[in-house]
Write a structure and sequence with these properties.
Length: about 350
């Protein structure tokens, strides 16, 4: 072997290491019980999983539904429902992808308006989707509700606005006792009847079912009920209590026996860090940063310097140190002609 060139005869060290070795092993041998090692590993990992689950597990709460919301805080449900009807809710003014873009609105990356470019591809009309369409289903067997819907839809826009404005001002003092909704006297027009009907649907769970109905084969599109619930304060309060709001660091498993969202920690972490935590364009900026980091990860084999880190920091030689120690001893014995050590 040449120490200067690192060759073994006419072969390099790499060629020697790759050449199949059919020589019977005459080195030390130990007994190896594969079944015993498997059982030990299984028991240890199972115990470790149980201990970690007990120490670090998060609550596995039931999913929040409109039924749960309307039963727990009916006043908040009614206050939110009337904003869906008059188009003043957060969802109604969100812009793309749910409704048309308005000048000056939408998430941007510097001058690039990503939200505007995406356009409306999940159209949501809060008045029709969240209120009027579900009520029309219930009105098929309720003449009073049917008449209220007909009166509301036939009225001019300014009259509709006057009814919903009056209802919004009064709903902060609403009292709900069973199926009875009590408001102070006011000019609510048909809105009071419609909101009471919608609350009744919500408390029985039928509104959840109506908003989940989808032409898709698998009706698991929770977009509409989730948007409706998110416009109220019930979901935000539950998130705050579980340390999941934007200024907190909490994280929770997905509902059911799914793996959870631990893989989202890097994505959600940026929302807690300035300037993302204070930017009105945080969603677009965090998305762009994650796309940039993902692209960098994909291109690691092609980035000079970064791809050479394993050669500069040979951690693999530390992990496989026994292999490299034996390989060096074999190469040393072959170069000197000395017998290999047992």
């Amino acid at each position: 072997m040449s120490a200067a060139t690192g060759t073994l005869g006419s072969r390099t060290l790499t060629e020697a290491s790759r050449q199949p070795d059919h020589t019977p092993w005459d080195g030390p041998k130990i007994r190896y019980d594969l079944a015993k090692e498997f059982v030990i590993a299984l028991v240890v990992m199972a115990l470790l999983a149980v201990v970690l689950a007990v120490v670090f597990s998060s609550p596995d709460d039931h999913p929040v539904t409109i039924r749960q919301w309307s039963q727990a805080t009916p006043g908040d449900f009614l206050a939110t429902a009337v904003t869906e009807l008059d188009g003043s809710s957060g969802t109604a003014g969100y812009g793309p992808p749910y409704n048309p873009w308005a000048p000056g609105e939408g998430q941007k990356i510097f001058p690039i308006g990503l939200q505007r470019w995406a356009g409306v591809h999940i159209p949501v009309n809060t008045a029709d989707d969240f209120v009027l369409s579900p009520l029309r289903i219930a009105a098929a067997s309720d003449p009073t509700l049917h008449a209220a819907i007909a009166r509301y839809t036939a009225a001019p826009a300014d009259q509709q606005q006057a009814w919903t404005t009056a209802y919004t001002a009064a709903v902060a003092h609403v009292a709900v006792n069973g199926a009875t909704v009590s408001l102070r006297p006011g000019r609510y027009g048909p809105v009071a009847t419609m909101m009471t009907g919608l609350l009744g649907m919500a408390r029985t769970g039928s509104l959840d079912a109506d908003l989940l109905s989808s032409p898709q084969f698998y009706g698991t599109d929770y977009t509409k009920p989730l948007l409706f619930i998110a416009d109220g304060s019930f979901l935000a309060a539950k998130g705050q209590a579980q340390h999941l709001s934007g200024d907190q660091w909490g994280m929770m498993n997905e509902t059911g026996n799914f793996p959870g969202q631990a893989w989202l920690w890097l994505y959600t972490m940026w929302y807690q860090v300035s300037p993302f935590s204070t930017s009105a364009n945080a969603d677009a900026l965090v998305w762009a940063l994650m796309m940039l980091l993902t692209l960098g990860l994909l291109l690691v084999p092609f980035i000079p310097g970064l791809r050479s880190i394993p050669r500069v920091v040979p951690v693999y030689r530390l992990i496989w140190r026994d292999h490299y120690r034996r390989l060096a001893a074999e190469q040393q014995s072959l170069s000197t002609g000395a017998p290999r050590a047992p």
